[in-house]
Amino acid sequence: TLTCILCKLTEHIIASNISCHFTQHNILYELQHGFRERRSCEIQLPQMVDDLSRTLVAGQQSDLILLDFW
């Protein structure tokens, strides 16, 4: 990329500190996935499908809000 190494290093340090702060103080929702340690989008998909199928079998309503920022 065209970003200088110092900018990348600074960004990494700030992002790591914010992530650690959020984790230590339980600021993020427990089921939040993506860009979190041990919570990838590949893990979220089977969990979501399982949750949807359980609510379908139980005859309950499922509401989804999907956001995609490009």
Structure, explained:
- This protein is mostly helical and 70 residues long.
- The chain has two helices and no strands.
- It has helices at 5-24, 41-57.
- The radius of gyration is 17 Å and the shape is elongated.
- The protein starts with a helix and ends in a 13-residue tail after the last helix.
Brief overview:
The protein is mainly alpha-helical and 70 residues long. The chain contains 2 helices and no strands.
Topology:
Layout: H1 5-24, H2 41-57
List keywords for this structure.
70 residues; mainly alpha; 2 helices
Q: How much helicity do the residues have?
A: 40-55%
Total strands: the figure is 0
Q: Structural class of the helices, strands and pairings?
A: mainly alpha
Amino- and carboxy-terminal Cα gap? 18 Å
The fraction of residues assigned to DSSP E strands is: under 5%
What are the secondary-structure elements, in order, as H or E?
HH
**Number of helical elements:** 2
Q: What is the molecular shape?
A: elongated
Q: What are the segments in which pLDDT stays under 50 over at least 5 consecutive residues? A: none
Question: What is the mean pLDDT?
Answer: 85
Radius of gyration: 17 Å
- Biggest sheet record: none
